[in-house]
Amino acid sequence: MAQLMVKRPNGTRDVVPSQMYKWNTVEGIVKSQAEAYGFKEIRIPTFEETGLFVRSVGDTTDVVQKEMYSVTATGDDGFTLRPEGTAGTIRALIENGLLNDGLPQKLFYVLSCFRHEKPQAGRLREFHQFGVEMAGSSDPRADAEVISLAKSILDAAGLKNIQLNINSIGCPECRAKYQQALKDYFAPSLDKMCETCHNRYEKNPLRLLDCKSEICSEIAKGAPVIIDYLCDDCRTHFESLQKYLTAMGIDFAINPKIVRGLDYYTKTVFEFISTDIGSQGTVCGGGRYDGLIEELGGKPTPALGFGMGLERLILTMENQGAEFADEESCDIYIGSMGENAAVKAMQICRELREDGVRAECDVVGRSVRAQMKYADKIKAKFSVMIGDSELESGKVELKDMQAAEKPAEPTMLTLDENFRGCFNALLIAKQLDAEGFDFGTDE
Q: What are the angstrom distances between the C-alpha of 284 and each of 166, 246, 393?
């Protein structure tokens, strides 16, 4: 009896080679833009002690209560696969003494995250996140710079119709007054609300605004807004942020309903929203978390950042018809007939690869016809076929696999030390021609 085929876990996704060019495109964009803003890459463990996320993300959030993948092993404390990148990065900042270096510290990462939730378009159980963290500045100019970086990435990706929404959720002082106002507002309707909101009512009233239940969402529509309860310092900070964004030419809308889903946020919160990926329209979200570093054991240090789901970014680019970098294909296929020709083909491939050329040759034992079909299938730009007569003459015909018409005169290359240089020159010329470079003519 045949065994059942093993399938990938629900909520995960394979990225096959034919789709990697899209990932290479977006990862290249996010990294180059982050580096242009002075951010440096950091890599952190895939799992952390569970307490890190409980303390940072918040024990009343859906992430901690419902979505974390937590494990234990004999002799170890409990560990959790990271559900987001900020907590681990802040832990790394503290543990490695980076806060003792020049401030602000500006870091970025590209990593996989894990949340147990219902898979849907733009939302997976294993997803990939690009994020940035800036530690060491409480100035609203830092907020504006982080938002500007996010906008630069979306612009570089060619996205249109992306709305920036901003809000301020205040500091602990003014938020305490707001939370009391929320409790007063929701108290008469509490018996109609879901069990989760009953728990949030006492522990974190701000999270009542983020409930996905239709009944709770409808009740929340008339709730007080945080902007009306901001203290003077938080109000000034928020107004200054708006001034800087306006000066930088970044359009925004104030959305008092944005609270973000994690407990560590303070003051500025923001989201970039797209209408092209269904209900999961947030392409990027972030804000300020001035108390997080101290909460995790570091010295009091203001910080802020954002996270951007790469699956959602790619999905939005696809839906909007944005351009991806071309898929890289084989530069030259070296075909062969006979053992001596196969040896020569292997030699030439090795030499070309040392120059960075994507070269392939037969390693299966195919016929000449099958080799040419394979060269066409892998989209080789050029090909040559080496046989006994080519070895004897020391010359081989170079075939342009992508040419619309066969040239009047064949292009011949010598099978000696000049092969590498001649082919590289032809390859560069073809690339420049494809890019529209005008070589000009001699007068």
A: 12, 20, 61
Q: Which are the contacts of 135, defined by CB distance < 8 A and separation ≥ 6?
A: 90, 93, 98, 99, 103, 104, 105, 293, 301, 302, 303
Of residues 49, 43, 46, the one with CA closest to residue 73? 49
Query: How many Å apart are CA 251 and CA 240, to the nearest integer?
Result: 15
Name the nearest CA neighbour of 272 among 306, 317, 323.
Answer: 306
- Cα 194 from chain centroid? 34
Torsion sign (Cα): 414, 419, 422, 427:
positive
- Domain spans in the chain, listed from the N-terminal domain onward: 17-171+249-320, 172-230, 332-434
Q: For residue 196, give both structure tokens.
A: 């989760």
CA distance 277 to 141: 31
- Fold exhibited by the domain 17-171+249-320: BirA Bifunctional Protein; domain 2 (3.30.930)
Q: What is the pLDDT of residues 171-217, one digit of tens each?
A: 989 988 988 999 999 999 999 999 888 888 888 888 788 787 889 98
151's tokens: 């906008």
CA–CA distance, 260 with 285 (Å, rounded to integer)? 8
Backbone φ and ψ of 332, nearest 5°: -150, 140
Helix (H) or strand (E) run with residue 143 in it:
helix 140-156
Alpha carbon of residue 120 to chain centroid: 18
pLDDT 10s digits, 309-357: 999 999 999 999 999 998 889 999 999 999 999 999 999 999 999 999 9
CA–CA gap between residue 442 and residue 420 (Å, rounded):
27
In terms of DSSP H, where are the helices of 37-107?
Answer: 50-57, 62, 86-95
Q: Which two tokens stand for residue 166?
A: 């901003």
Going by C-alpha positions, the residue among 351, 323, 430, 341 that lies closest to residue 384 is 341
Question: Which whole-number Å values give the CA distances from 234 to 29, 226, 392, in the listed order?
Answer: 33, 11, 82
Name the pTM for this structure.
0.87
* Dihedral-angle region of residue 440 (phi above 0 means left; psi in -120 to 50 means alpha; beta otherwise): left
The CATH architecture of the domain made up of 332-434 is 3-Layer(aba) Sandwich (3.40)
pLDDT tens-digit readout, 265-278: 899 999 999 877 65
In order of 135, 140, 152, 300, the CA distances from 236 in angstroms are 21, 9, 26, 21
Which single residue is written with the structure tokens 């800036």? 134
Spatial separation of the C-alpha atoms in residues 339 and 334, rounded to whole Å: 14
Q: What would the two tokens of residue 351 be? A: 């030499």
